[in-house]
Design brief:
2 copies of one chain form a homodimer.
Chain A lengths: L2 H33 L5 H24 L9 H30 L11 H12 L15 H25 L23 H29 L4 H12 L17 H14 L3 H8 L4 H5 L1 H21 L16 H16 L14 H13 L12 H19 L7 E3 L2 E3 L1 H32 L5 H12 L20 H15 L3 H4 L4 H4 L3
Antiparallel strand pairs in A: 1-2
Chain lengths: ~525, ~525
Amino acid sequence: MNFRFVINQLGLLLLVLSGGLLSLALFYFIWTSVVGHDVNPHARLALLISGVLGALVSGGAWFGTRKGCGQLGRREALLLVAAAWLLGAALAALPYFLWAQLHFDDATAHPFRSFADCYFEAMSGLTTTGATVLTDIEAIPPSLLMWRAFTQWLGGLGIVVMFVAVLPTVGLGGKRLFFVEAPGPTTEGLQPHIRQTARVLLGIYLALTAAQILALLAAGLTVFDSICHTFTTVATAGFSTQSASVGGYQSQAVEIIVGVFMVLGAVNFGLYFALVRGKFKNPLRDPELRTYLGLLFVGSAMVTVWLVGHPITTTTGEITDGSLGSAIRYGVFNVVAIGTTTGYATADTNTWPFPAKAVLVIMMFIGGSAGSTAGGVKVIRIWIAFKVMLSEIEHVFRPNVVRTVRVGNTIIHDDLKLATVSYLLGIVVLFAIGSLIVMVLEQSFGQGCDYPTAASASLACLCTIGPGLARVGAIENYGWMTPSTKIVLAVLMALGRLEVFAIIVLFTPRFWRAH
Amino acid sequence: MNFRFVINQLGLLLLVLSGGLLSLALFYFIWTSVVGHDVNPHARLALLISGVLGALVSGGAWFGTRKGCGQLGRREALLLVAAAWLLGAALAALPYFLWAQLHFDDATAHPFRSFADCYFEAMSGLTTTGATVLTDIEAIPPSLLMWRAFTQWLGGLGIVVMFVAVLPTVGLGGKRLFFVEAPGPTTEGLQPHIRQTARVLLGIYLALTAAQILALLAAGLTVFDSICHTFTTVATAGFSTQSASVGGYQSQAVEIIVGVFMVLGAVNFGLYFALVRGKFKNPLRDPELRTYLGLLFVGSAMVTVWLVGHPITTTTGEITDGSLGSAIRYGVFNVVAIGTTTGYATADTNTWPFPAKAVLVIMMFIGGSAGSTAGGVKVIRIWIAFKVMLSEIEHVFRPNVVRTVRVGNTIIHDDLKLATVSYLLGIVVLFAIGSLIVMVLEQSFGQGCDYPTAASASLACLCTIGPGLARVGAIENYGWMTPSTKIVLAVLMALGRLEVFAIIVLFTPRFWRAH
């Protein structure tokens, strides 16, 4: 293991995060001097201190290891990714923690109860989950809300760059799951290719961001709200600046814009890559995209049907009539919000009839497309597993018929079959273990916990959705849980976000042994 | 598909079932004339009519197709197994239904509410599940309780013979999962081998049965109770003659005897086969047996630890002290009852602390050994999947290291890896679908249903345990559910019992197409 190189690259990544902190602090210092009054000095200060601390440590790590760099191997890549998210969340949590320490005399009064809460919130940001510990989001200074949204934007970008541009070059992550023409890297001349691919992906991400900000401004949102919600939409992440989430605007235009960009964020970025390179047919032919859009449509339609005739409680507490119109409006938005693993809400899905909730849970599990900012197990894996199941069934009564398993025109080889089915089974096991630990921790150290809450919390974190059901539902939050539970859920977020393996390998002794 | 041959063999199997009905009816007619008074004429009559009807139809089917028999192919074997259980349950349900029709003037008064209830009870019998729709078991005539226990004994025997002697000869079922020396059949000269193997297995089964009856008699049980409980213990099935299950005897001797024979029933019958052939070392070396006994020990120990200090509610309604003694007594028995998929109870496990219940649910899922009368996914599959997962994790950071996956000394080949992991994932999916359907059906047509009830009902039927948790817990029953739910659960029992595929293939068009 080339620790030196890992520390070097990790330093670089955390330097970017520190840069974000410093830029934001700087902006708010300037902004205060322009508008002339000082609303939240402690928040600004917290951002500044965190940024300086982060820059010093990460800059030092990077500078101290700049010589004798090497190649990025598989194990180095895995360790880098895991460390980037686990340590990045600690750095990203710092401003929340410092602000609370500086601002509140009474420790019990502040919205972030402990460092575990801050870490949970920061991990929820960087993993684009969107689960929050905050009961009253409006009580948090705008500068910290902007930071909170920015962590999601950065997390989404990080995931896309890692899983589309970097990891495939060492044979990890996305590549085996991509069926569009591979977006760039071959084994020859990796470095320039990675940079170029990453640059194009950044461009696409920036373009989506700019487009949505403009759209939301046109829909009447403030600059602050537009930026914050855009940051958390294109990353399919889901932090909002209001406790009522997107439902707080009560604007159908905003819901439509957000809805469209959630879907755009949950699409394989390799497809945009193909578009940028002028290959317009690839996206249309992509089997995963077609299936995914089909799933969102079927899911929305099913939920809408079940909602007709049921009064819907919105996130602002109003109760709608049971008309077809409101069933479509609230059904489609919330299904898309869950199906893209964003986790915004306009309605209290807890009050929905059971079949509608079941559809939401299934959509949580499936998630978005591979190579996107969305979580879940990914559509392509569900599809491969489905085909494998069918072929296994036929194998029972026709053992001698060898039928190749295909997705689109791509033949799925035996090792990918086993990897996919094992991955899905592994996710189910992790989900079960997560639910179990949440139950035990809450019953031992907290106020107790019911099954739907524990199970949906585990699923919503593992699949990077954010809100679950019951006591962690759309209009609830994770604040009431014990610090130990929050740490466990933060680990689940990292597991789900980094496709499980990057975290799991850290626990295997063989990973750490010399090659 | 050689339908003629399938019908012929099916006729033979149902003829055995009818023979059981007729023998029982005959015995009770003689018994009545001996003791001189007539307790339950309707029950006797119901058994007789069912037996005559069954014998006529199945005998006719067998006689009409006796010419032009063929070889048992894979598809024929699958269809035969599926049809035997699905139609066998209908025949086995007949006496319950006829008795209720003959005996009760008021249709709402009788313990079996509908034919769906009778079918559920009969399927629960033949699949050795042990789930019941009866609220007051003591209200059922002894002759019918004897029939109910006998269906489980016959079901257990059928499973052992099918999965150890018959199906492996066509390359199905047990063979791929057996790691002890194959118990007999090779591709040459199938017929004599099958008969011989089946005969030895019958002998083993009869020996276990005789041993337990004698032990229970010695412990003070009546002849009737000894026979009924033995029938449902060696089959790891779980029907009792009392609503309080085995707990009703309040006898530690009975609990120990039943406990030992439950474990003996959940052991691979191939091991007994090896013992009979003088190969005494095989069982000791069997990796599945060792792991299984280890699991039962660890599970019992964990539950016992959690029970210490908790008063335990027994199935007779008494409340014990929280002493170590009663924790061991009730902890071990109920863990073994669940872990062997028998489903007897001496305590109301619903009132146990969550971690103890979680252990029970995990044991339900795992089940017993392959080639035994126990259900669940089987220990060997869990083990293979665990090894596959480990090798997949290592594969991520060491793609070029090819490590063979072994269980004991046996190398697990790629196709078995995929089959095993797919099977486990399939069971999870079936469990989820089952829970979903139970929820929807009960909410639509019944009194509504909570998540733990729906989930544990689905799991307890799929893994052929019997009782689940919450409203289908150890001291509850399935009687309150709607008939549609009962049919779904009966199908789940058949799916779980017949290793899924025998039922699933019936729904694939390719299965029915000519070769």
